[in-house]
Amino acid sequence: MSRIESIFSTLKEQNRKALITYIVCGDPDNLTTLEAMEYMAERGVDIIEIGVPFSDPMAEGPSIQRGHERSLLNSTSLEGILDLVGNFRKKNKEVGIVLMGYMNNFESMGAKEFSLKASNRGVDGIIVVDMPPEESNEFTEQTKEKDIDIIRLIAPTTKKERIREICTSASGFIYYISLKGTTGSEKFNPKDVKKNIRQLNEISSLPVVIGFGLKDRDTVRSVKDLSDGVVIGSALVDILGKNGFGQEFKEKIDELYTALVD
Q1: Which fold would CATH assign to domain 3-261?
Q2: Which DSSP helix (H) or strand (E) runs through 66?
Q3: Residue 128 — left, alpha, or beta (φ > 0 → left; ψ -120 to 50 → alpha)?
């Protein structure tokens, strides 16, 4: 059983939802990233998604695009990110770590080398935004050998048959995009989300989490009962970019955790 599977199994037993957060590695620097990760782990975050910076992050909204830009100015590399995860694992073996990026990020290292290094450092899963199932056979095989999950994105516009195809090669959990558009978009309809997640649950037995458009207590509470977890990213990236790791970031994590467990 992978660490992500174990996390969701435990949460189900405890009748809790997963709190999943996203930050960009190296934004504004690696020390800040590590401090933020350690705080989130201490305050109840179940899975941390680490953004791998890319020069053309097409699925991201302005907030996360700026985070990628700031990180790239620091020459953040995939190798450096893996080392940072390894440092985090010296203190924490429980929280799930997922790397989220684009095909070029991972292909530059190669499926076999990446999977070996990622496994050794303690990475649990990857989300490759622009890697469809048809083009991911090698990564699927290599990561599966190392108990690294390939987490798939499902959009509101994805057709039912396509969902079936995508779920066939997915593991860990399904990331449901709650609205049309890029990360950080403002509005979504909980009724539409509920209908689409019901359809997902009929197709796949994997846990389903909701992301895009969630940023505070109210948005988390509006959808927390519809899925197995929530993902918050843009709001955290904004805070780290403007003020670094400090009181505002800590208060936001505590706000999100409280919204999910109340």
Answers
A1: TIM Barrel (3.20.20)
A2: helix 62-73
A3: beta
pLDDT band at 185 (very low <50, low <70, confident <90, very high): very low
Digit-coded pLDDT (tens) for 119-167? 999 999 999 999 888 878 888 899 999 999 999 999 998 999 999 999 9
Residue with token string 């990233």: 33
Assessment of whether the complete model's pTM goes beyond 0.90 = yes
Mean pLDDT computed over 212-224: 90
Q: Return d(Cα 234, Cα 245) in angstroms, integer.
A: 15
Tokens representing 218 are 């109210």
Tell me the torsion sign for CA atoms 37, 181, 161, 165.
negative
Give one DSSP letter per residue of 92-128, joined into a string: -SSSEEEEEE-HHHHHTT-HHHHHHHHHHHT--EEEE
Could you tell me where the DSSP H helices lie in 156-227? 160-168, 190-203, 217-223
